[in-house]
Write a structure and sequence with these properties.
The chain contains eleven helices and eight strands. By secondary structure, it is an alpha/beta fold. It starts with 22 loop residues before the first strand and ends with a helix. Helices cover 36% and strands 16% of the residues. Helix 5 crosses helix 8.
Length: 298
Amino acid sequence: MTIPISPSKDTRPPHELADPDSTFIEVNGLDVHVKTMGQGEPAFVLLHGFGASLDSWNTIMEPLSRFGRVIAYDRPAFGLTERPLTWEGQNPYSPEAQVELVTGLLDHFELDQVILVGNSAGGTIAMQTALAHPERVSALILVDPAIYGHSGAPAWLRPLLATPLMRRLGPLLVRQIQNRGPKLLKMAWHDPSKLKPETIDLYTRPLQADNWDIALWEFTLASHASNLAEQLDQLTLPILVITGDDDRIVPTADSIRLSGALPTARLAVIKDAGHVPHEEQPDAVMDVFRNFLSTISS
């Protein structure tokens, strides 16, 4: 028996949801939503976390652009980047494809080497990129990175999730984020009373894009353990680990543990901040950025 699943309502092509300063570029066969500021070196590429978009970096893009070129983009399954439903070859939602998307962006912008700035799961991709392509990454800035105990569905469960039945039901499950998303966003802030309605709107806007629910399920299916915790000693480039002192999503203690396990890492704990300190305490985060950049500049 075929279970009828109604499509998401009131969705639109991503281009119709874009801002005036949005750009769409083709990278590795994907139509990628990008915003840029500044010029020159160093160049920074910003990688947002799960459920977020490049808009998560709005408060720090301009001050960071005073140091060099800043590129923020929407990772596959999020924001306004294309959400393919079929593909040939590598799954575009897989961690491996996301690493190659980073280097594809660098090639597009003709950048030999960059500083990667990653929040939460974006920090995971940043670290994986530095391991896979060390010649392309000069430094890492990891903001509440998801390393310990954040691997998605267990391996034994993934075959069940990929069955035809679950591929039909999965998008219905992920649609729950429409209701639970604001609650999760409040958990990401130390003081959710300071969350502005326009910030919440930026998080919910991508849920108006065509096929957002199907893509998010495909992303879930493609996720797997990173094993990064066993490779930390290989990351010997300059690294800054930043965490909010009240992170209830990736516990503050995890970021402190990570900074101790990385051979060259510096640690900064941002007071009165949760999982997205760059949104909640942008001035304090930029102060830490400036201090770190001054130590690695030639």
